[in-house]
Design goal:
The chain has seven helices and eleven strands. The protein is α+β, with helices and mostly antiparallel strands.
């Protein structure tokens, strides 16, 4: 796998802008016809954050030691000063749902959906914490990013600790940057005949990202670093492309989901793989960009 190089989008001439856009081969970007604008607006599904409709969490895996859920986008893992007015948290919702205490062993950002693992007792929590800290857990994410990325790449770029004014008041502000590595591969790409910013067309990629370290907002910050920010990221993303997705695809969420987590069970020593399908909001975007055939069966919503 080659080291990631910095790439940028190239501008298109007026002649290119007026050309008929056609579907290209699998090796080339998927391109929409110009006259599809009306259909795009009329038939785009409502890609909203589903945080207001969380009644029961989807349990993906459970045994006497572990439990994993599909965390909806917009739900905090636990109480945090980051959002002091929030009243619902994955930890409390799951505890009430199963009728016993649960213990968080890793985190997902509030706007990120996907696999979230808890321990069911303190001893298991301690063992899993060591597993995560030792980088013995493999995590896969799916994301929609701006631009056409390389086919595959590694981002090896140290990240300084990202402090929050509300929750990190005691953290060391001048702590040196820490090692941070993210591998990714491109699954699909698209080119839309809409000028966004200074470019005549809008380009996007669907990627599978695998963080090899666990820094805060690592994937989001790394993709920003290589000029391919995650769509819907209001902190590290591109506001113009976020607005384009809101207006044309009615998408208001961060297009980043933790789709698979693989680890060695802390007691049986057997491999455990936990996967979750994408939610309807994410699938709506995938469908609009004609990328459904690029998804594996386990990423499709259960009927």
């Amino acid at each position: 796998m080659k080291q990631h190089g910095e790439r940028s989008e190239t501008s298109q001439s007026p002649v290119r802008r007026r050309a008929n856009y056609t579907r290209l081969t699998q090796e080339k970007p998927v391109v929409f016809p110009v006259d599809r604008d009306r259909r795009l607006r009329q038939h785009a599904r409502d890609c909203k954050n589903d945080e207001a409709s969380v009644d029961k969490l989807d349990i993906l895996y459970r045994d006497e030691h572990l439990i994993a859920i599909n965390k909806p986008a917009g739900l905090l893992v636990h109480r945090s000063a980051v959002d002091r007015y929030e009243t619902r948290y994955a930890l409390q919702l799951l505890r009430d749902q199963i009728g016993q205490r649960v213990y968080p062993v890793h985190r997902l950002d509030k706007p990120t959906s996907g696999v979230l693992l808890f321990a069911l007792n303190p001893e298991t929590a301690a063992r899993l914490t060591v597993t995560f800290t030792s980088r013995e857990v493999n995590k896969q994410y799916l994301a929609v990013v701006r631009g056409h990325t390389p086919e595959q790449a590694r981002i090896d770029y140290p990240l300084k600790e990202e402090l929050d004014a509300a929750s990190d008041t005691l953290a060391q502000a001048d702590k040196p940057a820490q090692e941070a590595i993210t591998d990714y591969r491109r699954l699909a790409s698209a080119e839309l005949p809409y000028p966004v910013g200074r470019y005549a067309v809008a380009r996007y990629s669907l990627i599978e990202a695998t963080p090899r370290t666990g820094r805060k907002h690592q994937i989001r910050r790394h993709m920003k670093h290589v000029f391919h920010p995650v769509i819907g990221d209001t902190t590290h993303g591109d506001g113009r492309h976020n607005q384009f997705f809101r207006e044309h695809l009615r998408c208001q969420r961060l297009l980043l989901s933790a789709t698979k987590l693989t680890l060695i069970h802390p007691y049986t020593q057997q491999p455990v793989e936990i996967a979750t399908p994408l939610d309807s909001a994410f699938i709506s975007v995938i469908e609009r960009l004609e990328w459904l055939e690029k998804l594996s069966d386990d990423l499709m919503p259960k009927s």
